[in-house]
Amino acid sequence: MYSEKCVMVILDQNNQVLNETSGNVRLQFDSEYKIRLRNKNDFAILASVTIDGRSITQGPNSGVIIESNGKIELERWIDNISTGNKFKFVSINHPEAQDPFDSNNGIIKVDFYREKKHKMYMAGPTIKPYIDPYTYPPIIDKQHTWDFPGTFYCNSNSGLSQRGSCIGQSILNDSGCTINGSKSDQKFSYTDKVFENFCFTSMSMKIKGINKSSVNVSSINYCAICGKRRKKTDNFCSKCGNNFIR
Q1: Using CA atoms, how far apart are residues 151 and 170, in angstroms rounded to an integer?
Q2: What is the rounded end-to-end Cα distance, in angstroms, of the chain?
Q3: Which of 84, 178, 214, 246 is the most buried (most CB within 10 A)?
Q4: Mind listing the pLDDT tens digit for each residue in 105-117?
Q5: b/e sequence 115-125, b meaning 16+ C-beta within 10 Å
Q6: What gap in Å lies between CA 40 and CA 166, rounded to an integer?
Q7: 102, 93, 195: which is closest to 148 by C-alpha?
Q8: What is the DSSP secondary-structure string of the chain?
Q9: pTM of the full predicted structure?
Q10: pLDDT tens for residues 65-91?
């Protein structure tokens, strides 16, 4: 998914990029996953990530910094900068699912914020204020401006996992959410950078589940992980990378 030179993709536990169609991706239930974010702009940005309506970072005004022309792969909740639990996608019928009927289930949303430009002055025949090249909308509620006291740097390229989604009895079969997976040692650190208090672009993607039992595992014509049709001579799935010869 691409917007304003920002990119978001979801990786499965084999580091394979999930194919996105109309804002939806398919992932096998009980799988851990990652979120890859890329910044193709010439300025740093802050990515505020929520999964199933829950921020992955601690505190309301926080996020993960992506430097100019940089990328990160998020694989865990950031309740602690040194360690945490990976994202694991499960069915909403899983005993650890918090609210099976939450409309945010399965949705990964990322709001991107531009690094704040400090006012500068230029010396010349006369002293005049520096003109900001960007135009910003007015702040309607000045009591609720963001100073991002809890922004983070990612010290490693890892991955992430999320909660699944869906509501309504007719779609419960592919509805899921994200819970705590295995332990991750992905490291982060704090920064005092300041970012604008409004996002310049947002992206939202929904994960829908694949139930392994719904795929005919014994059939040689379909992948047991994603269900894609395969040839008898294929050693790997062309869609998800599943190894047929393990």
Answers
A1: 40
A2: 32
A3: 178
A4: 999 999 999 998 7
A5: beeeeeeeeee
A6: 32
A7: 195
A8: -EETTEEEEEE-TTSPBPPPBTTEEEEETTEEEEEEEEE-SSS-EEEEEEETTEESBSSSSEEEEE-TT-EEEE-B-BSSSS-EEEEEEEETTSTT-S-TT-TTTTEEEEEEEEBPPPP-EE-SSS-EEPPPSS-----S-GGG----TEEEEE-S-----------SGGGGGG-EEEEEEEEE---EEE----B-SS-SEEEEEEEEEE-GGGS-TT-TTB-TTT--B--TT-SB-TTT--BTT-
A9: 0.68
A10: 999 999 999 999 998 889 999 999 999
Encoding tokens for residue 88? 């694991």
Q: Looking at this protein, which amino acid is placed at residue 14?
A: N
Please report where in the chains the tokens 């869906």 appear, as a residue: 166
Q: Which of 12-26, 58-72, 142-156, 185-199 has the lowest mean pLDDT?
A: 142-156
If you search the block for the tokens 């990029």, which residue do you land on?
Answer: 17
